[in-house]
Structure formats: structure tokens, C-alpha cells
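Figure 6 in text form: structure in, sequence out.
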């Protein structure tokens, strides 16, 4: 079973961060709004202090160091004490914890919205502190010119770009409006124009249960002025829609920031779209779904607002640092420049038929596998066959990622070995890893099932070293850096239309694994770059899933039609893998038959057949490695350098610069050393 424990990551201090108490800022909660001739005033609030911690983020070999600023919550010294009638001094001091709890713990959900007050406090806390900091910095710069007393904010969007990483920081939109209108006294229309030109929104998921929809009552209690501003934004937005589409009340209902019916809720994605000048998805197929399905009314209104920015990964961590052997081998063939410009990997196509290079690539992979096998034997006390195919499925545990389909394939392989022990079987070590959200019951049952199947398979003498199953506990970046370079087969098997992009898929591709996957997320573009014949693509496409939904998905049909699927499911149901508790997996089986939104049975047959093709190719080491080289050569598009350049050019309107500032120990040209007014820099 998955068991959680607290990760007290600051217990021993953090040498990379520096507290900056001189920039501490107040953040307000609760209170009420007072309207007067001079405008709105948010009063009688509770104050929590935001203490910044700065972490240096060095660029790669370019003498540039940027700063990541994180915020810690602190109670003010008069917290609960300014109230002269509080007689219980001790309790007042203990209650400081209530304020400081804001930055205590990260909500560990993946693709799931849990509408808790503490979570909304966290979201607003970090947003309010950051925006105050941005405005302080803008005013201190030469751009924040002042007309007598008031700052002129006209150039604000030219100096400041704020990217909303999903809807979690969406309260930044009404907060910036509050600062401009209530504090800086800008007229609404001017404030709104500046706000829209400052913000851009990246959508990260299309799963409805993941979309943030905050109850109006909660926002009214916690952030009363922000609710008023959201209502005003919505009113103006709906007035505009009504002027374009008179009498279309259904459209107004669909596009409103406020969802009526039951408890009134604020649709944060709608707020982000209306308050931003650009909206993007994170892979081509995802951005299409965002435009044509999830936000189709908004895209019809402003098609130019919607873009794509396919995700990327950093080749520094995900190749040089985790796989020095492969990085060095590539550098020997094409030079070292590819580290900064990953598109240069295409030069490897010249060596696809180079027998020596093929052998060297295979050798590096084998060395990585041996190293990881030793790690597994040390940590898990299981004997691993390093010449077996390392079949790896590591990512968060979620029904849409279909670890269950992998599990059914493991059971199918197990049954085939037992049915015909003499038949040739390509040995596999199946490695599954990832965490479930602590409250996600089904995901935790899936983890238990995988471990139960592993227990049976790994201890069956008929199977021996042909098939081993390992569940990697506490999967995290440091473990990914070990397993990814050792992987032969990367599992990317989400139901088409559910994985926005994925980035693990790219890490495996860059590290010489082949991909078995559906046409989902960035897999589509990986197949486009490498050629579909160089990936193991299977299963329903988005159109097929839509069609199956229209017809109605009936799991029973597949169970009745496919004997190997029936056998595997019957074994789970009968307690073959849980003899001490035969009903342990009833919930899982019941879900698969009656409410499987992700249609595991519908892709099972195509998946198993595709896995047979994988095994067949693995027998031919040379052909396998040539396909690996074609994949590495096609991985250049998936560098985060390319992704960030696209955000910079298309959304933030800044030009990337390759200028390298000289290190402090080198004398600089006198001409370079001057700022425009001629004083020393």
C-alpha cells in the first residue's frame, strides 16, 4: 500500500536560499468593503506577512543568474493582540500558527480540484505578495515615471509579463485591478486594458474534475473586494457578448465567469481567458481540443487569442546530468553545441547506419541498465536480468494514465508463460512507479493491485527470470534521473484526448528508449518528428473515443470477446492475486465494467498486439538500436529552450538574447562598461 509521510524539506535548512526580511510585505484577508466618493476601501482585514526567500537560478554557462523568489507566511507581532480585550495572551501567541499555516504544506493533488479555504488562501497569498513586489520594482525603475504624485502605468505591459501557470494564480487578475483602481486610482477601462496586456494564460488539463470552480460564498468571505471586481469584470464581459449575440441567453450562461445552479461558483478558467491577451495549450492536439471543445465559445469570439506552445524539457538535467555516457557519445559525433541548440541532434541521422555508433549506443544503454539493476537489487532485494527489456511506466498514478491497462498486459504475459513455458518469450522487467494523491482511493487500489500481481509473478518458479515486476516507491525527480537512462520501452498509454502534453515521454525519447503510446499529448508530435514507424503507436484516436462515447462504451462486450482479457479480469476478481482477501479488488473490477471513463478494455487488444511487435523488434538488437538513434535524432524539438523562445516571441514580446556577459574576473571593454548616460555600470 502507499503510505504517506511528511516531507519536512527545510528541517536541516536550505543553503541555496536567502531570506530577505527587508522586502517583507503585508497580505490581507477577510474584512469588508466600504464605498465612498473616493472609491472602494477594503477594511477591517486580517494581515499575514509574506517573507521572501531568494534562490539563485544560474543559466547554462552564460554568466547569468536569475532569482526565484518564494514566500513564507509570518504572523505580524501584534497578531490577535491588537484587540485589547483579548485576555488570553498565551492563546493569542499560539494562534500565530493559524497565519503561518498558509505556507506549511502543498496540496498533493494531480489533476483534481479540492475547493478548500486553505488552498484559496495559499493561491491569493503568493499572488498578492508577488504583485506588490512587481509594482514596487516597476515604480523604482526608470519606466515608473511619476506625474507629480501618481505613477504612470502606461508602459507597465511593456516591462512586465505575467504568465498564469494554469488557473491557480487566477486571483492575480482581480488583485491587479484592485491595485490599479482602488489604490493607484486609475479609471476602470485603463486599468483593464493594462491588466489584459500584462496577463497570459496556459491551460494544463481538460479533465473537468481538475478545473478550479471556487464557491462565491467562500470568495465573498475571504476576499470580498475581489468578488466585487470579478462581478464587474463579468458584467462588462456579458454586456459585450450580448451586444454581439442578442437574445442568446444560452451563450451568456455558457460564457459567464459565474456558474449558477446549486452553489454559485466562479469558473477560474473563464476569468483567465477574459483577463488575458493570450491563451495556450501545451501540445498541438491539446491546444486544438482547448479551442474546439473546452473553450469553443471563447475561441469563436477571439480566435487570435488562442495559441499552442508545446512543452519541452531541459537537456542539461535530462541528458548531460542524468546520462553522461550518452551525452558524451553524441558530442563525439556532432560536437558539443547541441546542448544549447538541441535541434542539432538531427545530425545524428548521418550515423543511423554506422555499425560502430550503433554498438556504442547499445553499450551505453546496457551500462545504464546494469547500474540501475544493481540499484534495484540493493533497494528491493530482487534479482534483475539486465539483458531483459526494461519496460517502464513512471508518472503520477491516475485512471486516465491507465496503469491498469499495463497491469492487464503483465497478467496476460504471465498467463502466456504459464500456458506454454517452452515457447520463446522475450524477457521483460516491468517497472511501474508513481504516487497517488492521498485521497484518491482508486489510484491507491491500483498501486495495491500492481504490488499484488508483482508478488505472484516474481515468486512463480515457472516464470523465473522471464518476467519481473517492480513497483518503484517514492518516485521523484532524483529517481527519474536513475531509471530513465536505463529504460528500453517507455509507456505513454493515456486515453487519447486526456494527457495535455506529458514530458516524461520526451525525457525517455532523448535517453534512447522507444515509445509505446497512444496518439495523445506530445506523443503525436514525437511521431511527427521521428516518423510514426519509429514509435509503437496503437489504439483509439481522439475521433474514435468521441465516436465510442456517442455510441456508448460497453466494457462487457470486450470482456466477452477477448479470452485473455476475460482470464486476467477473472483472476483479479477471484482473488488469485489476493488469496487472503479475495474481494480486495472488487472496486477496481466494478469500475472497469461499469464506470471506466478511460476505456481500458477498448484499447486492451490493440495494446497487447502492439506489445508483441515490441518484443519481436527487441530480439533484433541492431534494428532496435537503429530505431533508438532515429528517435534521439528527432528529439530536438522537445527542448525547453525552444518552448521558452516561443513564449518569449509570441506572448511576452521580448527577443531572446544570446549575449554572454563577461565573468567578474575578466576586464570588460571600456565602451561596454558604460550605461547610456555614461556613468559606470
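Output sequence:
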Amino acid at each position: 500500500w502507499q503510505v504517506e509521510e511528511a516531507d519536512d524539506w527545510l528541517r536541516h535548512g536550505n543553503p541555496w536560499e536567502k531570506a530577505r526580511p527587508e522586502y517583507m510585505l503585508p497580505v490581507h484577508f477577510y474584512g469588508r468593503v466600504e464605498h465612498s466618493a473616493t472609491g472602494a476601501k477594503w477594511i477591517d482585514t486580517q494581515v499575514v506577512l509574506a517573507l521572501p526567500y531568494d534562490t539563485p537560478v544560474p543559466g547554462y554557462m552564460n554568466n547569468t543568474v536569475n532569482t526565484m523568489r518564494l514566500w513564507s507566511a509570518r504572523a505580524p507581532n501584534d497578531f490577535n493582540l491588537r484587540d485589547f480585550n483579548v485576555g488570553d495572551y498565551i492563546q493569542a501567541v499560539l494562534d500565530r500558527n493559524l497565519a503561518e499555516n498558509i505556507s506549511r504544506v502543498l496540496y498533493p493533488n494531480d489533476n483534481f480540484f479540492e475547493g478548500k479555504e486553505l488552498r484559496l488562501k495559499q493561491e491569493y497569498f503568493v499572488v498578492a505578495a508577488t504583485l506588490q513586489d512587481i509594482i514596487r520594482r516597476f515604480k523604482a525603475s526608470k519606466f515608473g515615471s511619476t506625474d507629480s504624485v501618481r505613477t504612470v502605468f502606461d508602459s507597465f505591459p511593456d516591462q512586465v509579463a505575467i504568465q498564469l501557470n494554469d488557473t491557480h494564480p487566477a486571483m492575480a487578475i482581480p488583485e491587479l485591478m484592485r491595485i490599479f483602481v482602488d489604490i493607484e486610482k486609475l479609471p476602470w477601462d485603463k486599468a483593464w486594458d493594462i491588466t489584459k496586456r500584462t496577463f497570459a494564460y496556459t491551460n494544463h488539463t481538460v479533465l473537468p474534475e481538475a478545473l478550479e470552480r471556487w464557491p462565491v460564498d467562500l470568495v465573498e468571505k475571504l476576499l470580498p473586494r475581489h468578488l466585487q471586481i470579478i462581478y464587474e469584470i463579468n458584467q462588462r464581459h456579458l454586456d459585450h457578448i450580448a451586444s454581439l449575440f442578442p437574445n442568446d441567453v444560452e451563450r451568456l450562461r455558457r460564457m459567464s465567469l459565474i456558474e449558477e445552479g446549486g452553489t454559485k461558483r466562479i469558473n477560474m478558467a473563464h476569468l483567465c481567458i477574459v483577463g488575458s491577451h493570450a491563451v495556450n495549450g501545451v501540445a498541438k492536439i491539446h491546444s486544438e481540443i482547448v479551442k474546439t471543445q473546452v473553450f469553443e465559445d471563447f475561441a469563436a469570439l477571439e480566435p487570435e487569442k488562442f495559441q499552442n506552445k508545446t512543452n519541452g524539457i531541459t537537456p542539461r538535467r535530462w541528458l548531460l546530468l542524468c546520462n553522461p555516457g550518452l551525452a558524451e557519445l553524441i558530442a563525439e559525433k556532432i560536437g558539443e553545441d547541441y546542448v544549447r541548440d538541441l535541434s542539432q541532434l538531427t545530425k545524428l541521422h548521418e550515423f543511423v547506419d554506422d555499425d560502430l555508433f550503433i554498438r556504442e549506443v547499445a553499450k551505453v544503454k546496457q551500462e545504464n541498465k546494469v547500474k540501475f539493476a544493481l540499484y534495484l537489487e540493493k533497494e528491493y532485494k530482487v534479482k534483475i536480468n539486465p539483458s531483459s527489456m526494461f519496460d517502464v511506466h513512471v508518472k503520477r498514478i491516475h485512471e486516465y494514465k491507465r496503469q491498469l491497462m499495463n497491469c492487464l498486459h503483465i497478467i496476460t504475459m504471465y498467463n502466456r508463460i504459464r500456458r506454454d513455458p517452452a515457447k520463446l518469450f522475450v524477457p521483460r522487467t516491468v517497472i511501474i512507479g508513481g504516487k497517488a494523491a492521498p485521497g484518491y482511493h482508486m489510484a491507491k487500489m491500483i498501486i495495491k493491485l500492481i504490488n499484488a500481481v508483482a508478488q505472484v509473478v516474481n515468486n512463480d518458479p515457472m516464470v523465473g527470470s522471464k518476467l519481473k515486476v517492480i513497483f518503484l516507491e517514492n518516485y521523484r525527480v532524483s529517481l527519474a534521473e536513475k531509471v530513465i537512462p536505463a529504460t528500453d520501452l517507455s509507456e505513454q498509454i493515456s486515453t487519447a484526448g486526456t494527457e495535455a502534453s506529458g514530458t516524461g515521454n520526451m525525457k525517455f525519447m532523448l535517453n534512447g528508449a522507444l515509445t509505446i503510446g497512444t496518439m495523445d499529448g506530445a506523443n503525436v508530435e514525437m511521431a511527427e518528428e521521428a516518423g510514426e514507424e519509429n514509435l509503437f503507436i496503437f489504439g483509439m484516436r481522439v475521433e474514435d473515443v468521441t465516436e465510442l462515447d456517442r455510441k456508448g462504451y460497453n466494457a462487457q462486450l470486450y470482456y466477452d470477446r477477448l479470452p485473455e482479457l476475460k482470464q486476467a479480469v477473472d483472476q483479479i476478481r477471484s482473488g488469485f492475486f489476493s488469496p487472503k482477501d479475495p474481494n480486495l479488488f472488487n472496486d477496481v473490477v466494478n469500475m472497469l465494467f461499469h464506470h471506466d471513463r478511460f476505456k481500458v478494455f477498448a484499447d486492451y487488444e490493440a495494446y497487447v498486439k502492439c506489445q508483441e511487435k515490441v518484443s519481436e523488434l527487441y530480439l533484433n538488437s541492431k534494428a532496435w538500436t537503429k530505431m533508438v538513434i532515429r528517435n534521439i535524432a528527432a528529439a530536438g524539438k522537445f527542448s525547453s529552450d525552444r518552448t521558452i523562445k516561443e513564449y518569449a516571441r509570441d506572448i511576452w514580446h521580448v527577443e531572446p538574447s544570446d549575449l554572454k556577459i563577461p565573468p567578474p574576473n575578466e576586464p570588460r571593454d571600456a565602451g561596454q562598461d558604460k550605461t547610456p548616460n555614461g556613468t559606470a555600470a
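Caption detail: The two ends are 59 Å apart (CA to CA).
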